[in-house]
TrEMBL record:
It is an enzyme of class 3 (hydrolase). The active site is at 61 (proton donor). It comes from Cyanobium usitatum str. Tous. It holds the Pfam family dCMP_cyt_deam_1. This is tRNA-specific adenosine deaminase. Its EC number is 3.5.4.33. HAMAP family: tRNA_aden_deaminase. The keyword tRNA processing applies. Coiled coil: none annotated. Keywords: Hydrolase, Metal-binding, tRNA processing, Zinc. SUPFAM superfamilies: Cytidine deaminase-like. PANTHER family: CYTOSINE DEAMINASE FAMILY MEMBER, TRNA(ADENINE(34)) DEAMINASE, CHLOROPLASTIC. Its cofactor is Zn(2+).
Length: 162
């Protein structure tokens, strides 16, 4: 089947933004991700869990990827797609390359830490043994707005920690 088309990308991203907002209401940075198998079925779902689980690896992408790997019984995702509300950081982009993800679709670009085109591009780096298709900016304004308002509220409440 291949990666989802533009309409399905937007539908999934709308759902991800609602889940990201819930994570934000629980004190997590509002990011959510989903892994779709070759047939377009959801096989992994995640939102940020760093605060909740006291886990530096608790990024939405890694949570979804781990769930999908357990469900499939395999760590290879060549024909699969990952959709995430924020451009993956270097750790998550590296994990996606290692997992041989077929396509990554993200919402907001991350000019400070984005590793799939904004700061770095690990998907097309000559050292990468696997190259994946990357589609950025799907509902990017909405995704950026959600993050900006969350960080603004946290700063106003004095709840941001390094």
């Amino acid at each position: 089947m291949g990666p989802p088309g533009p309409q399905l990308q937007r539908q999934w991203m709308q759902l991800l933004l609602r889940h990201a907002e819930r994570a934000g209401n629980q004190g997590e940075i509002p990011v959510a991700a989903v892994v779709l198998d070759e047939g377009g079925r959801c096989i992994g779902w995640g939102s940020n869990r760093r605060e909740q689980n006291s886990d530096p690896l608790g990024h939405a992408e890694l949570v979804a990827l781990g769930q999908a790997a357990r469900l499939r019984g395999d760590w290879r995702f060549n024909g699969c797609s990952l959709l995430v509300s924020l451009e993956p950081c270097p750790m998550c982009a590296g994990a996606l390359v290692q997992a041989r993800m077929g396509t990554v679709i993200f919402g907001a670009r991350d000019p400070k830490r984005g590793a799939l085109g904004s700061c770095l591009d690990l998907a097309s780096n000559p050292s990468a043994h696997h190259h994946m298709t990357v589609i950025g900016g799907v509902l990017g304004e909405e995704a950026s707005g959600l993050l900006a308002s969350w960080f603004r509220r946290r700063r106003q409440q004095g709840q941001l920690r390094a």
